[in-house]
Amino acid sequence: MGERGQLAGAVALVTGGSRGIGAAIARHLGRAGADVAITYNTAADLASDVVAELTALGVRSVAVRAPATERGAVDAAVRTAAAELGGLDVLVNNAGIARYGPVADTGDEDVDDIIDVNIRAVFTGTRAALGVMRDGGRVITIGSNLADRVSSPGLALYTMSKSALVGFTRGLARDLGPRRITANLVQPGSTDTDMNPADGPGAAAQLGTSALGHYGTADDVAATVAHLAGPGGAHITGTVLTVDGGQNT
């Protein structure tokens, strides 16, 4: 991550920030001096733990419940975070879900959930954030390396949703250039979290595609996000950064 204090005075919002990659991102931004709001769905206890950690660092932090499947929930969380912490400088669209299986066996409810969380909430949450974000801000979205290369069957729906973020990010960068707000997409590969543990049943197959031969960590992804959020990311926009240990090489 960048130097301590490089984000002092900034306000950040990380969606899905109660655990895994989102919690790591929140911690990295807090250590850099930003005040950090996080959203969560059901893990109120984990969200409280993250807030406590950030508060102990000497920054302000709040947690807002915002189920991304509920339309308008993320938008409302953006407004709440900005009101409580005083504006917004960094939005990290991290919240996401996965649904796997053949297209022929995929139900409408799964399609709706994927679109609502992985696409709609990102779009509407970003739209809300732009109403309160200061010029020179950052929009950073977490996608997946599966948007670039489909490594196994059963990924069509999930890949569709993550591929949409590529076009959204590039278009957003053009829209926001006049305000000096950057927009970038970070695409993790196999990352050791409770959703995809490095000792899980599918780990061996995933490791077989890695150039480095091991899973990434949530901190690997968070460090990239923190760089984009800080001074080093000022001239990076409309870009896709893949953090996958060479899985897609």
TrEMBL record:
Keywords: Oxidoreductase. Belongs to the short-chain dehydrogenases/reductases (SDR) family. SMART domains: PKS_KR (SM00822). This is NAD(P)-dependent dehydrogenase, short-chain alcohol dehydrogenase family. InterPro entries: KR_dom (IPR057326), NAD(P)-bd_dom_sf (IPR036291), Sc_DH/Rdtase_CS (IPR020904), SDR (IPR050259), SDR_fam (IPR002347). One of its GO terms (molecular function) is oxidoreductase activity. Coiled coil: none annotated. It comes from Actinokineospora terrae. PROSITE patterns: ADH_SHORT. GO terms for biological process: monocarboxylic acid metabolic process. Residues 10-247 form the Ketoreductase domain.
